[in-house]
């Protein structure tokens, strides 16, 4: 699949690190380092603009290393970029640690996964089919 992209940053385009990678790293495109205090959130620009084909979305997801080592994650994970959006790709980062974290220009801050999706059409009905689970909700299929 080919996706049109504009790169207004000075960083390389996102790319797959291995043949089996699902995501491509997004890099911070900021003019100076940004300190993210504990429990603080910030939208970090990437300098990237893209044109996805209709029927696809781009999912912005956390990087496991930042989350495990520093408590930095994507607040609305996964964030969805729709095919008709043409603005800059921004990443909502949050610091869930007890320590300030400094975001550097060019730092890999999130990953981007391209995914196909379907459009739903609602069918209004009076009843749904029966299942073993029924209305069992949160934790209903867990350990007894």
From TrEMBL:
EC number(s) reported in the record: 3.6.1.23
Pathway: Pyrimidine metabolism; dUMP biosynthesis; dUMP from dCTP (dUTP route): step 2/2
Keywords: Hydrolase, Magnesium, Metal-binding, Nucleotide metabolism
Keyword Magnesium part of the UniProt annotation: yes
InterPro entries for this protein: dUTPase, dUTPase-like, dUTPase-like_sf, dUTPase_trimeric
Keyword Magnesium among record annotations: yes
Sites where the protein binds substrate: 63-65, 76, 80-82
Domain dUTPase-like as annotated: residue spans: 12-142
Gene3D superfamilies (UniProt xref): 2.70.40.10
Pfam families the record matches: dUTPase (PF00692)
Membrane-crossing residue ranges in chain numbering: none
Cofactor entry: Mg(2+)
Listed GO MF terms: dUTP diphosphatase activity
Catalytic reaction(s) noted: dUTP + H2O = dUMP + diphosphate + H(+)
Primary role: This enzyme is involved in nucleotide metabolism: it produces dUMP, the immediate precursor of thymidine nucleotides and it decreases the intracellular concentration of dUTP so that uracil cannot be incorporated into DNA.
Similarity remark: Belongs to the dUTPase family.
Protein name in the entry: Deoxyuridine 5'-triphosphate nucleotidohydrolase
């Amino acid at each position: 699949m080919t996706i049109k992209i504009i790169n207004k940053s000075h960083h390389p385009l996102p790319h797959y690190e291995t043949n089996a990678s699902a995501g491509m790293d997004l890099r911070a495109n900021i003019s100076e380092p940004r300190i993210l205090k504990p429990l603080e959130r910030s939208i970090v620009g990437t300098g990237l603009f893209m044109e996805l084909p209709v029927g696809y979305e781009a999912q912005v997801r956390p990087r496991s290393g930042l989350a495990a080592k520093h408590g930095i994650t994507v607040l609305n994970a996964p964030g969805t970029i729709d095919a008709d959006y043409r603005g800059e790709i921004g990443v909502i980062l949050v610091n869930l640690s007890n320590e300030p974290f400094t975001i550097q220009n060019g730092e890999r801050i999130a990953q981007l996964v391209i995914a196909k999706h379907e459009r739903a059409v609602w069918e209004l009905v009076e009843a749904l089919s029966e299942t073993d689970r029924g209305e069992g909700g949160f934790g209903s299929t867990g350990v007894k």
